[in-house]
């Protein structure tokens, strides 16, 4: 089976994104992706800390978080279609997403001291657990496994989109954001899917190491950030719900 037939739930690693990028003097390397990922994570941390500090000064950061989220979405779309722009859009995405995470995390900190850092810890541990599971092939990324995760991811995103639209009409999506057992169950499923999506990303990146051109490292970095940040958000939401419930 051709490598280009492998799919992933992460839009950053969609097949069409990589076709036509196999000829270049400099190729994508694992060390390059690791370096760029750490660099972008530092940018996320900087903008997160900035908004976090504003919250603790008593400043309303609604516009920071809203515009940050909107900018992150726009930059993600640009990165998906303009691959060579990724060296610019990926760092900008990191800063924009940090603005959103700053408000999201700071408000959680005000309600439950230390919770955001615990969520970060769970996210980091989950990342390395998934990496070990992939490296030792404890969980194999088969075609069927891939299809299930892709379908689950699309379903979750559609549910979030619907709830976002309902919010514009003043309809609260408590079945997702509330503390009912259904809402908690939805969060558990979403966090689990986000975790398993990392396996698909590892699999696809492995097949492109030393094959895709060097600039695609930025696209791979962006893709990993998308999954990691999604996982962190789901973990923090779940922890908040459980804390309120119990």
The whole-number mean of residue pLDDT values reads 88
Q: Residue share in helices?
A: over 70%
Structural class: mainly alpha
Low-confidence runs of at least 5 consecutive residues: 1-9
- How many angstroms separate the termini? 50 Å
- Tell me the series of helices and strands, N- to C-terminal: HHHHHHHHH
Describe the structure.
76% of the residues lie in helices and 0% in strands. The protein has one domain (26-245). Helix 6 crosses helix 8 (181-208) and helix 8 (181-208) packs antiparallel against helix 9. The protein is built from nine helices and no strands. It is globular and about 50 Å long. The protein has 246 residues and is an all-alpha fold. The model is unreliable at 1-9 (pLDDT under 50).
Topology:
Elements: H1 15-18, H2 30-56, H3 62-81, H4 86-111, H5 115-135, H6 143-168, H7 174-177, H8 181-208, H9 216-245
What are the salient characteristics of this protein?
0% strand; mainly alpha; 9 helices; 246 residues; globular; single chain
